[in-house]
Amino acid sequence: MENTLDPLKIGKKSFSSRLMLGTEVISDPKYLLPDPIGTLKAAEFLVKKGFTVLPYINADPMLALHLEDLGCATVMPLASPIGSGQDAGIGAPSEATMAMELGADGILLNTAIAQARNPAQMAAAMNLGVKSGRLGYLAGRMQKKYYANPSSPSTEISHI
Fold first, then answer.
1. Looking at residues 40-58, what average pLDDT do you find?
2. Which secondary structure element, helix H or strand E, spans residue 11, and what is its range?
3. What is the predicted pLDDT for the residue at 158?
4. How many angstroms separate the Cα of 159 from the Cα of each of 69, 82, 151, 156?
5. C-beta neighbour count of 88 within 10 angstroms
6. What share of the chain is helix, strand, coil (3-state, %, to 5)?
7. β 20-23/52-57 pair status
8. Which of 35, 36, 105, 120 is such that its CA lies 20 to 30 A from the CA of 62?
9. Which of 44, 40, 87 has the alpha carbon at shortest distance from 62?
10. Among 81, 146, 13, 60, which Cα is nearest to 5's?
């Protein structure tokens, strides 16, 4: 594992802050599912080397807690198989918007852009979707009501 880090060490020296490292340990070439034991070992190794580690894991709360205890910044839970068009549940800009409207701090995705007919255009659309959702979240959604409530003023209106 040490030899694999050589290019990362060079990159890390180029940045003044800690280098964030999305970490995927995949031992199953058919289904591309994360290897929880390998992920735990790799995360421990990388955190000790000073990297900010963002591991890709199955939806396993106990593994997430262990990774947090090791010093991982966050986890990226599997929502669907890699390359299925549903990575992280986000395949379209509208889905990125929805995630941000729910209060997410950010979105990390690849397949939706990489496999789009026009990747550059999809990346721009995802950027706008993320910004739109974040602005909507910060603005605060109007409260839902279960009864009618006029949205126009009811006083000082003309009666023709």
1. 92
2. helix 6-14
3. 72
4. 67, 61, 18, 9
5. 21
6. 45, 10, 45
7. parallel
8. 105
9. 40
10. 13
Query: How many Cα atoms occupy the beta-carbon half-sphere of 39 within 13 Å?
Result: 28
CA-nearest of 18, 66, 60, 59 to 42 is 66
Give phi and psi for 31, each to the nearest 5. -100, -10
What local confidence, expressed as pLDDT, does residue 14 receive? 47
User: How far is it, in rounded angstroms, from Cα 137 to Cα 104?
Assistant: 9
In angstroms, rounded to a whole number, what is the distance separating the alpha carbons of residues 122 and 77? 23
Phi-psi label, residue 118: left if phi above 0, alpha if psi -120 to 50, beta otherwise: beta
> How would residue 67 be classed by pLDDT, with cut points 50, 70 and 90?
very high
Residues in the chain: 160
8 A C-beta contact, residue 23 and residue 53? yes
The answer to whether 79 and 89 have CB atoms below 8 angstroms apart is yes
What letters, b where the CB count within 10 A reaches 16 and e where it falls short, cover 27-56? eeeeeeebbbeebbebbbbbbeeebbbbbb
User: What's the mean per-residue pLDDT of the chain?
Assistant: 84
Q: How far apart are CA 43 and CA 35, in angstroms?
A: 12
